[in-house]
Amino acid sequence: MSQDKAPQQFDAIIVGAGFAGLYMLHRMRQLGLKARVLEAGSGAGGTWFWNRYPGARCDIESMQYSYQFDDGLQQEWEWSERYAAQPELLRYVAHVIERFQLASDIQYNTRVERAHFDDSAARWLVETNSGERFSAQFCVMATGCLSSTNMPKFEGMADFKGAIYHTGQWPQDGVDFSALRVGVIGTGSSAIQSIPIIAEQAAHLHVFQRTPNYSVPAQNGPMDPQVAREIKANYAEYRALGKSQLLAYDLKMNHQLAANATPEEIRAECEFRWQTGGLYFYGAFADMLVSQEANDVIAQFVRDKIRAKVRDPKVADLLSPTTVFGCKRICADTGYFETFNRDNVTLVDVSKTPIERLTTAGLSVAGKIYELDAIVFATGFDAMTGSLERIDIRGRQGLPLADKWQAGPRTYLGLQTAGFPNLFTISGPGSPSVLTCMITSIEQHVDFIADAIVHLRTHGQQCMEPLLEAEDAWVEHVNEVAGGTLLNSCNSWYLGANVPGKPRVFMPYLGFPAYVEKCRQVAANGYEGFKLDVA
Ligand code: NAP
Question: Which of 64, 132, 271, 387 is least buried, going by the fewest C-beta atoms within 10 A?
Answer without folding.
Answer: 271
